Amino acid sequence: MSVLKRSAQRARWLLRLGVDRVGDWFYSIDTVVAGALPHASEISRFGDAYVNGPVSYWILRSYLDCKTLGPKEVFYDIGCGHGRVLCMVARHRVAKCIGIELSKEFAEKARTNAVALRGRVSPIELRVGDAAEMDYSDGTTFYFGDPFGAYTMRSVLKRIGETLTANPRAIRCIFVLPIFERSDAVRRVIETSGWLNFVGGQSLPYSPMRVEYWGGGPNRNGAR
């Protein structure tokens, strides 16, 4: 990699870090990870959890339009880390925001952020444990910020799909996936879930990530 390219990458990283720090200051929370991205100390059933790398505010605003979330929405962030996404959604009127997090340490920080959040109008609940073993029976929107690999994703989507029998409802899923080979296996799991339908997606020129919107259930709606 050339010196010029490395310099450009570092400049983008510093700009992103600055924007994220301003965002945290504005919302009165602490979600910035400035150094090496941390792993959970706990091990999941399939051992495929990824690092805690929060999506930058300026990218998240393009991926997630909170205005489309209504007052009956039960929003899940699966692999919520320090709770940045939960906090943004909780500033809008929804029924509940639920964070699923393997790491007790990350979840505790997310709880602290939920209490400190400026302008919160909706409740935030943190559930600690393996996403592959959680109950999703009340969820309507599920956000996946690249939290884990294909094995856990398959188990989670199966558990969500099974809830449609007892509780028929429209479900939408938002998947943030890296634009390189690692995400291919995860995308194949999504495509073969048996109950999700592709709605749309987008990539941003300044991000190595792509977001995809999928919907399932009666009157399915995968809109942003």
Please give a handful of descriptors for the protein shown.
single chain, 224 residues, alpha/beta, Rossmann fold, seven-stranded mixed β-sheet, 7 strands, 34% helix, globular
CATH architecture term: 3-Layer(aba) Sandwich
So what's the overall shape? globular
- Output the strand order for the largest sheet: 3-2-1-4-5-7-6
Count of folded domains: 1
Q: Work out the helix count.
A: 6
Mind summarizing the main beta sheet?
7 strands, mixed
> Unreliable segments (pLDDT under 50, ≥5 consecutive)?
none
Query: Strand pairing plus helix content: what structural class?
Result: alpha/beta
- Fold-level CATH name: Rossmann fold
H and E order: HHEHEHEEHEHEE
Radius of gyration: 17 Å
Proportion in β-strands: 15-25%
Helical percent range?
A: 25-40%
Number of strands: 7
Q: Helix and strand layout, with pairings?
A:
Layout: H1 3-27, H2 57-63, E1 74-78, H3 84-90, E2 96-101, H4 104-116, E3 124-128, E4 141-144, H5 150-166, E5 171-178, H6 184-191, E6 197-203, E7 209-216
Parallel strand pairs: 1-2, 1-4, 2-3, 4-5
Antiparallel strand pairs: 5-7, 6-7
